[in-house]
């Protein structure tokens, strides 16, 4: 599980969508829960890949840094420090060249040697 998470985060930081998809189960369930009250849920590798591809150009740089990681069998919880530079004005009010920093928690589950669930809370 540790290797899967590290590979996923490294690919994310490189904006490498094929690298992210390589460690995901075909039936991946992805949830992003924001403290603004919005939630996005995706099911399946294709839906995840489409969303990830749309998001890549929105940030000139982006980085997830693992602060704390707890792994138990096929589950893990990690505390993430996230930083990015916005590439263009976004509908949520973020402006081009704005630097953002967030802290959050991600929950991972694995099945059949791949990541089968990611729930991001920020």
From TrEMBL:
Keywords: Isomerase. One of its GO terms (molecular function) is isomerase activity. Residues 6-117 form the SnoaL-like domain. InterPro entries: NTF2-like_dom_sf, SnoaL-like. It comes from the Bacteria. This is Ketosteroid isomerase-like protein.
